[in-house]
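Usage example:
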Amino acid sequence: MKLLKWITLILVVLAVSLPFSGQATDLDLPDVVILDKLVNLYESAEFDHEYHTEITDDCTICHHHTVGMPATDENCSRCHNTEIVPEKIACSNCHSVEPFSARYLSEKEAENNVYHIDKPGLKAAYHLNCLNCHFEMEGPTGCEDCHERTDKGNAFYRSGKYAPKGVEGGSTH
Amino acid sequence: MDKISRRKFLSVSLAGAAAGAISVSGQAFGAGDFKGYPEGMGVLVDLTRCIGCRTCEAACNEEQGLPEPAKPFDDMSVFDEVHHGGQKRRTDENAYTVVNRYEQENGEPVYRKFQCNHCNEPACLTSCFVNAYTKTKEGAVIYNSKVCVGCRMCMTACPFYVPAYAYSSATNPVIRKCIFCYDTKLKNGEPPACVNACPQEALLFGHRKNLVKIAHERIRANPDRYVDHVYGETEAGGTSWMYLSGVPFEDVNFDMSLQKEPILANAQDFLGMVPMVLSIWPALFLGFNRLSTLGGEDEKKDSGPSENEGVQK
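Running the assembly step on the lines above writes:
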């Protein structure tokens, strides 16, 4: 009976601890992130963060040098080679929702920061970072593979129920 | 004809020379001196980022109130269309910008957005004799349909073949081209609709001077990714819309034989001589004429023989 208790105890401990053995750090990593700051023509995108942490062990691929790992790109590692974890890790903390507003442009130019002067806005940061890898690793690359189009989006693209009805002629040469 | 006095000869030739010098000194600016207004905006088009989604075309259509297209903007079969003489799609009266696909040898297509490049010294502007075009200080080259007479010289002058004519209208045909969303956006300091719409920021909006720096910085940081040339930095006197490419520019239908001077330079030297010619040549040739007919005897000897025969001198 005592042996059975010990076996049970060991099994319970294993059952509770094994699922968490995959976690490399003790940070509170989100499993799913809803990307909804840019909802307009498309609905929000449901990003499976946990899956992506599993298929790559290098956080800097997406998070550059902002999660405590030194940067791997030599253009960045010239300056960012220490392991500091900043408070803000989300993409939208550094990549602006409106990168072309007059205010943002004048701030950018006043900063005169050579290496960050080409920092893309949030929409571009998502697409450039994600799609580059998806094209290479054969992940989803279609627009609606990641986010559904809204009704406003369909009207914008003249698609779906807003598609032109067999418009022929005109002066398009 | 009386003898011309030395004093008179000298005064006439001096006056002619002075007139010529004044007209020549009026030419303070040559073509190519204008590098754009200091606060001029521009757009850097990075062809390595464009994925051919055509969202920019849809945004332009919405912003400019253009009519319904023939096909939806997410229909990619437009890339297979072939027009006059084997051409790909062009801008026309209903589309101020188009994206075309160019197949490359390695199988990966390159997409290129085509629209007015908003040159620093536009050929359309300099060819227009009714001043229908204006280069605004924000950098846009805009068009005033109210003064346009429909001569279409601008279409001939543009080295990029951008301005399109509204042939479909018999009573009020106008030129149609990208206006950098000047009326609705650029005037207020906002970027054009296509720039906001692009999901990959293949279109980067900013001051033209900074965009040139950013373009070269991108080439420096990623030498394997880009061809070492910023198209539009110097072509045709410099354009506000500039391009970076990962494949040779001629493979994406860019004209690499364009001159560095603005198109105006081809005509300016010749045309600039006209005021000088009109003021100097009459005085000069009058002087020659007077010189060659010095003294009455010479004139009488040159005239016809029969009538003056026998006239006493």
